[in-house]
Amino acid sequence: MAVKNLVIVGGGPAGLAAAKAAYDCGERDILILERENELGGILEQCIHNGFGLHTFKEELTGPEYAQRYIDEVAKRGIEYKLASTVLEVTDEKKVTYVNATDGVVTVQAKAVILACGCRERPRGAINIAGMRGAGVFSAGTAQRLVNIEGYLPGREVVILGSGDIGLIMARRMTFEGAKVKAVVELMPYSSGLNRNIVQCLNDFGIPLKFSHTVVEIRGKDRVEGVVIAAVDKNVNPVMETAELIPCDTLLLSVGLLPENELAKNAGVALSPVTGGAVVDDNMMTNVEGIFQCGNVLHVHDLVDFVSSESENAGKCAAEYINGKRGADEKVTVKTVKGVRYCVPQQLSRDGNFEPLNLKMRVSNVFKKVELTVTCDGEKVYSRKRPVVAPGEMENITLNSEQVRKLKTAKEIVISLEGGDAK
Hints:
Blueprint: E1 2-9, H1 13-24, E2 30-33, H2 62-76, E3 79-81, E4 85-89, E5 94-99, E6 103-114, E7 118-120, E8 129-130, E9 136-138, H3 139-149, E10 156-160, H4 164-175, E11 179-184, H5 194-201, E12 208-209, E13 212-218, E14 225-230, E15 243-246, E16 249-252, E17 256-258, H6 261-265, E18 290-292, H7 303-321, E19 330-335, E20 339-343, E21 346-348, E22 356-362, E23 366-375, E24 378-388, E25 394-398, H8 400-407, E26 412-417
Parallel strand pairs: 1-2, 1-6, 2-3, 6-18, 8-13, 9-16, 10-11, 10-16, 11-12, 19-26
Antiparallel strand pairs: 4-5, 5-6, 7-17, 13-14, 14-15, 19-21, 20-22, 22-25, 23-24, 23-26
Helix pairs in contact: 1-2, 1-7, 3-4, 4-5
């Protein structure tokens, strides 16, 4: 059995950033396992700009951003294997993978970082009536077809869901000569960034229909049209409002699911809200020595936030291997009154009070609210926000004194106060 100090599952932006940080913390025995034929993950097909503003203070395309980290990994001589599919990760940190060169290999690791990314929610998960004709694609699949394979999925398009990939593909399909007839969103608000609504829809006159959904797909061999309808407050279709939009293509941008089959098999506890692992501020799961970061942990809106979170995971994993961090008593972070979740969900009582970043999402659009963090009833942090929305992640950084109060508290609560928060 092969032996490695640190095995990282996934060679996308999360895995690359984690590897770089672990190396810079002194860990040299690192192996990255990537199932695709190149490093970079999903960024390789994201040819639009807007990446890197936080990390590199300049605007990059997805492949350019990925290349920055690929170059850093190459500069450090970190070992990686491509076209290598991980079959199993155990709670004993045994990682089994397969590829065409090595066959089936099991590696005993001292620490494992799961950076597996996420997958798109498929049509079967949302139960749209209709035949299984050609022309129904997930937005990410359409993105790969256009940007990597050089194919145009269709010429008259309706997009269901206003996630960032769907919004970006509305613009991309328009650039390629297709007519995007509408973006249809079930909720009364977008699940994507506001800047993408402006730049990808408004700038091209593409209508965005809130509180609507697709109730039927017409066409047997190929999509011929979709029927959309408004939904009531319980998100049930109001069939009296149904209308047919002729089209040959339906793109689905209906959510991303963290790729957590390996984590479940290893006994990692998952959050019912995020779909990712429950982690502490060291990015460690309930299984000692198994860490998680990136979109497999929770779906991010900016890759810059993935990188910073993953660098923390790599640093903590390296320190764990060297005996500087371990499994300690935890205090749980509770989220109430409009705050849907917070990552990390727990803080370790390890005596480490260095500044801490908390990431969270709200459950609805709220105006004129105050985001607060309290411990044992004492407010230790607050920030007024004119508006918060589910599509934009809230980031707060606590200083060392605030972290000390949280890690020694019995109860930590994050909430929205004032305005229309409930």
